[in-house]
Amino acid sequence: MSKPSISVFFPAYNDGGTIASLVIEADRTCRALTDDYEIIVVENGSTDYTVEVLEELAPQFARLRVLTHRQPLGYGGALKLGIATATKELFFYTDGDGQYDPRELPLLLDKLVPGIDVVNGYKISRSDPLGRIIIGRLYHWAMKLLFGFRLRDVDCDFRLIRRTALERVTLTSNTGMICLELVKKLQDAGCAFAEVPVHHYHRAYGKSQFFNLPRIARTVTDILSFWWQLRVRRLPSAQAVVSAPEGRRKEAR
């Protein structure tokens, strides 16, 4: 059986307390799976010590590529840049806050059998405060209603995707709504999904960038705009290759 070719991607924004352990565990996990892998971190305008941590890590890991942006790209901009930068046949991503464990990547890989394009994690249980758990469940059911999702956990950003599947969609969002856009467009492009239970951990460092009123209001506006485009204007959701966002970047090695 041939070994996989994997790009591992972490967007990082004020994740100085977690990004080092994620890179280390991702490197250790990938070395056990294949000799054809890369780890990409897009640092996204952090105001803590994330940049300093990544600058120390980069010389120690030959497979690590660090792209720093002093002006924030937004979560969507960072994800688009990660996808556009990746060179391997499989693309795995999760957040840089450490709430998911990259050591569970082999669980996804086991389900990526012929005929499957995307393997999506779903949380065994959500390790967040009660209020966020309630909001998360409401969000999940609202998205299923609005967009016809068939996944059991739309909000689980622990995904393994074939590059051939990514090449079938165009992503446009620069906000956190890109995860919704990604899953919807992959689904509409006819991609086959598999799902795997994964652990979700308490946030050990920093705080969520989503749970504040201005950001929630913007997300609601973006979701309704996306729904209008797909359901009312009926714009096609699967078209072409993902492109990187414009902007200056610095790669540290």
From TrEMBL:
CDD domains reported in the protein's UniProt record: DPM_DPG-synthase_like (cd04179)
Pfam family, one: Glycos_transf_2
Keywords for this protein: Cell membrane, Glycosyltransferase, Lipopolysaccharide biosynthesis, Membrane, Transferase, Transmembrane, Transmembrane helix
Annotated GO CC locations: plasma membrane
GO biological process, alphabetically ordered: lipopolysaccharide biosynthetic process
Gene3D superfamilies found in the cross-reference section: Spore Coat Polysaccharide Biosynthesis Protein SpsA, Chain A
SUPFAM superfamilies: Nucleotide-diphospho-sugar transferases
Positions of the Glycosyltransferase 2-like domain: 7-169
GO molecular function: undecaprenyl-phosphate 4-deoxy-4-formamido-L-arabinose transferase activity
Record carries keyword rRNA-binding: no
Record's keyword annotation contains ATP-binding: no
Record-linked PANTHER family: UNDECAPRENYL-PHOSPHATE 4-DEOXY-4-FORMAMIDO-L-ARABINOSE TRANSFERASE (PTHR48090:SF3), UNDECAPRENYL-PHOSPHATE 4-DEOXY-4-FORMAMIDO-L-ARABINOSE TRANSFERASE-RELATED (PTHR48090)
Name of the protein described by the UniProt record: Glycosyl transferase, family 2
Protein's organism: uncultured Thermomicrobiales bacterium
Taxonomic placement: Bacteria, Pseudomonadati, Thermomicrobiota, Thermomicrobia, Thermomicrobiales
